[in-house]
Amino acid sequence: MGPTRNFSFNRKFKGEKITVKLKKILEPKLPATYQVATSQDFIDGEIYQAEFIDKTLTINQRTIFSGCSFKNTTFEFTDNTISEFTDCLFEKCDFSNLNFNKIGIYRSIFKSCKLLGTDFTESHLQDLQFTENLMTYANFSGSTLKSVRFLENEAKETFFTACNFKNVELLKNQLEAANFWETALAGIDFSTNQFERMEVTPQLAKNMKISLSQAPFFTSLFGIEII
């Protein structure tokens, strides 16, 4: 699969017409056919071009997954297990309450997955797409997110505290009570997302992009009264 293309779409948001230009994010390089992962592959800690469907995977050591597809898969990680995923596709997988602290994930897609309370703290995430996931209480605090798109996710009370954002897109997500404290938001477009309140650092919220309907929240944040 090649890189995504830049394109625009128009969306009406509470009476406002908004044009959003999607940025380039590299898609995973997946094989035409998959291999069968063996027990020895897991012992060696390296899994390449394997497909997992309706499985429960228990990871007991650092493991590298590359070019893999996971469908309806449940993951179980032991404490302090740091793994890496590159060029992977996750569909309808369950990562609820898993510890992905300090993990590296590159050129991968999460679609229709459960990420309830998943801990991504202090991780490096690059060229990722999160689409239509349930990710309430997920925690990305202290992580670096480079070329990452969040599209149509249920992300209430998600933590993005003290993150390093570069080329991050937030499109049509439910972000009620999400926490962006101590994260620089200049240039980040929130205009298509839904929320009535969020946690942001006022000094770091300058030059972020919002819709007209979202303006009352930010005017109150900065102590501005509309009369």
Q: Layout of helices and strands, plus pairs?
A:
Elements (H helix, E strand, L loop, with lengths): L7 E6 L2 E6 L17 H6 L1 E3 L2 E3 L2 E4 L4 E3 L2 E3 L2 E4 L6 E3 L2 E3 L12 E8 L12 E8 L12 E8 L12 E8 L7 E2 L18 E2 L14 H7 L6
Parallel strand pairs: 3-6, 4-7, 5-8, 6-9, 7-10, 9-11, 10-11, 11-12, 12-13, 13-14, 15-16
Antiparallel strand pairs: 1-2
Class of secondary structure makeup: mainly beta
Main pleated sheet: 10 strands, parallel
Q: Please count the helical segments.
A: 2
State the helicity in percent bands. under 10%
What is the rounded Rg?
18 Å
Average pLDDT over all residues: 88
Beta-strand level of the residues, as a percent range?
A: 25-35%
Spans of at least 5 consecutive residues with low confidence: 1-18
- Distance from N terminus to C terminus (CA atoms, Å) equals 53 Å
SSE run: EEHEEEEEEEEEEEEEEH
Overall strand count: 16
Described by the principal axes of the CA atoms, the overall outline is: elongated
Q: What is the subunit organization of this protein?
A: single chain
Describe it for me?
By secondary structure, the chain is mainly beta. The protein is built from 2 helices and 16 strands. The radius of gyration is 18 Å and the shape is elongated. Residues 1-18 have low confidence and may be disordered.
